[in-house]
Amino acid sequence: MCKPLDSLAKRIRHCRRGVLCLSLLAPAALPADEVGSPPPYFDWQAENYEINSPLGGLTGVAERGRAIAGDPLRGNCLACHQLPIPEEDFYGNLGPSLAGIASRQSTGMIRLHIVDQSRFNPETVMPGYYRPLGQLHRVAAEFRGRTYLSAREVEDVVVYLATLK
Amino acid sequence: MKASLLVLAALLVAMPGRQVLLADEAVSGYDYLQPDMQAMQDDLSSNPGMLVVEQGETLFSTPGQNGKSCADCHGEDGARLETKHIARYPVYSEELKQPVTLHDQIQRCWKERLGNPPITYRDEQLLQLESFVRYLARGELVNVDTGGALVPYYAAGRELFRQRFGQVDIACRQCHEYHAGQLFRGQVLSQGQTNGFPVYRYTEGQVTGLQERITQCLTKLRAEPFAEDSPEYIDLEVYLSARSNGLRIETPAIRY
Asked: How far is B249 from chain A (nearest CA, A)?
């Protein structure tokens, strides 16, 4: 099993990008560690506005989720939301503040919000980070056949947001 | 009841986010800028877009391969150009049976009147000339025809404005109609009006034409941009220009 080492290497790259990336908006290039064949897609089911099972049965890591939420290349949650990530200066207010989100919503509901916000609001401006593939229009070649975040990244962000009580 | 409605209406009008509430009213991107950026745009000696305008001015009187320059037909520094006509672009050409944008017209003159090899949309000389000509009409009100032969192109552009694109899966209107005035990672979203184009983009440090700007947006949406001068870009330019009707031309405007 070389998984822990693998994810450590990814985290180091994460941090370096976080420091170097000065752009306010998400650059269009695929992160370097995602070039290659897309990760497998795991089906999910929503019930009562919740997805109760973690995607692919994966277990997220809150610290990684926090980095993804602040990273313009990954979740870029700060583009539209406020979060308790004080080292990042710029945020947006298109969406509500997510401070204390876990005291308002269940983990399953947080997961569905990230996976497919259009289930709550068909006119939403929020990307569906793990929507079924093939429902999109004119996706650039390098992103075709990929979800916005991988299942692991979604689970990392879910676990991170679930700590915000 | 009536009185309380009046009070409510007065409150809505008095609120600072007025442009969001009255989405039917066109608001220039200028109104979303910080005062120091507005001052930079207004003071032509500090406006960085003027560099490109001046390059265009020089090019305007530079002879082409057949010895003729733009100034030979249009007068010294464009004195014979009608600024009200510049404000009407894109226009429908009966001869070509299609809309003609300002840069299309410059491309045609460049080739047919000056006898130069054709320039593509991305050629910086085209951007310089377009910036200079639009600058001549600075202060003029945008006045694109929305009742004539442009109607189907306008309608197609409007559809594109509402079409979701790319992996991010959002449409132009979602940011530029529903959320104009709100913050996107520290940046204020504008209505996406076109009265300042070509604009100096502060975040990019360069003057950018409208087509290029739409390409930048599509790329951010992780969408495949359209081909240069494709019908989609023309439709969008017709719609977006008409959408700015009544706003003053600000070229070279400064935008984030």
From this structure: 27
User: Domain range for residue B94?
Assistant: 50-136
CA angle B108, B72, B128 (to 5 degrees): 55
Q: What's the structural domain count of chain A?
A: 1
pLDDT tens sequence across B95-133: 999 999 999 999 999 999 999 999 998 899 999 999 999
The predicted structure's pLDDT at residue B1: 47
- Structure confidence by residue, pLDDT tens digits, B194-248: 999 999 999 899 999 999 999 999 999 999 999 999 999 999 999 999 999 999 9
- Is B217 catalytic? The answer is yes
Closest residue in B to A75 (Cα–Cα): B168
* pLDDT score, position B237: 98
Q: Are B70 and B82 in contact (CB under 8 A)?
A: no
Cα–Cα dist B74/A150, whole Å: 58
Instruction: Please check whether residue A72 is in contact with residue A23, taking contact to mean a CB–CB distance below 8 angstroms.
Output: yes
User: Chain A closest CA to B148's CA: distance in Å?
Assistant: 31
Q: What does the CA dihedral B116, B196, B179, B163 come to, rounded to 10 degrees?
A: -20
Among candidates A94, A127, A135 on the partner chain, residue whose Cβ is nearest the Cβ of B184: A94
| CB-CB neighbours of B171 under 10 Å | 20
Q: Tell me which residue range forms the domain holding A131.
A: 41-162
Catalytic residue among B70, B109, B172, B217: B217
pLDDT class for A38, splitting at 50, 70, 90?
A: confident
CB contacts < 8 A, A to B, total 85
Domain CATH code at residue B108: 1.10.760.10
